[in-house]
Amino acid sequence: MKLLFEQCPSQSPQVLPPCDIPQQEVIPLPAQLGRKNPPRLPQMSESEVARHYTALAQQVFGVGSGFYPLGSCTMKYNPKINEQVAALPGFTGIHPLQPEETMQGCLEVLALAEQYLCEITGMDAMSFQPAAGAHGEYTGLLLIRAYHLARGDHKRTNIIVPDSAHGTNPASAVMAGFQVINVASGPDGCVDLEKLQAVCDENTAGLMLTNPNTLGLFEKDMTAIAEIVHEAGGLVYYDGANLNPIMGVIRPGDMGFDVIHLNLHKTFSTPHGGGGPGSGPVGCKEFLAPFLPVPYPVSREGSLVLDGERPQSVGKVRSFYGNFLVVVKTLCYLLRLGAQGIPEAAKHAVLNANYLKQGVAKDYDVAIDMPCMHEFVLGLGDLKKETGVSAMDVAKAMLDHGMHPPTMYFPLIVPEALMFEPTETETKETLDEAIRVLAEIRKTASENPEVLHGAPHHTAVRRPDEVQAARHPVLRYRWED
Q1: Which CATH fold topology does 80-336 show?
Q2: pTM
Q3: How far apart are CA 286 and CA 259, in angstroms?
Q4: Could you read off the pLDDT of 152-166 as tens digits, one per residue?
């Protein structure tokens, strides 16, 4: 597909008519900041522009386009009512610097969302400032760091991270000033208690854990894990990336977690992907609440105010109070589903994942063949040895069937991994079609593997050189003359 510049490479637009009022004297820009030549922008009619962007939109694949089983991403359908409520003028027309008495409704959204999410997670307080998941991880780790420093415990510099963790976990820990200590998983895909015990000591600040983990398995020894870390003087951090299969069923706070982050843009059905906006609120137990970012909504004399005077706070982590409209969408989702619908959605997510896993298990090897939670991982190492067909080949072949690939090559502890998360919003018919497609791909791998090496064959963009694209991306248009 041609770029706008390639359609009209050399014409300059005349968008505005000549100015018919006296021009005011302005301070000229320094010469080094001025253009030597006028911008070479394409000149197109409105219909041409509309067609161009419509064609681009038709090439984008989203949850509204087809099956999207991207593991650990919870790509569920987003009810349109969420967008409609967030678009109400009372929410979109607010200014973050207007007087608090004029934005009581918006502050009530924050307070009510905090109440409901604390109830779901078993936390006592929550801040909506962090802009997304990794930002929430970083903020939660700042709370852990502030807690230890406030107690004069300066030697706690280690954060323990399992080998199956999301890649952002160790990155966030380093950014927060910690050293990362890796702990291996056991043969069952869960944390090895003996190895965890061996790395817990007086230098342990905390443990970062996702439960269910990235293999889609519930950490059956969770209370023992928390006890080991707590006995060493550390805190337990919950990565909320995989909350979807347990929301409303079991609470992280009851498992022994002290601080958490949530991905509102995943679990609570606001748009995920496409660059945002996201929201990664941080919740914590009461003893960590003084360290939450400021300003923090509190009730005073019958009104809600933003409290910015919290001496132990880690300070601001984002401008104003985060991505507010994402919180509006989340509250709409919570109110629509209610106390009955939230756990029902979680249970259907587990049901869908196990149904899909059983359907594909006859053609592919499941990494840990036991009942999963929201997602499961296939290990295609033996398939690659047998046929030469890699996890990448299978994933690319799915594109030719109108399906988004699963997460590829993660977690790293599984060779040739494909991680599937179908979510609760997929129908049985969709899952049956996915099982059929994957069976067809497996048959092709045995009979004609070369076809899969070249997949996809019918998409707008074929298989690119991904190494070249990552190392030498072309980010701007270059004129030939």
Answers
A1: Aspartate Aminotransferase; domain 2 (3.40.640)
A2: 0.90
A3: 10
A4: 999 999 999 999 888
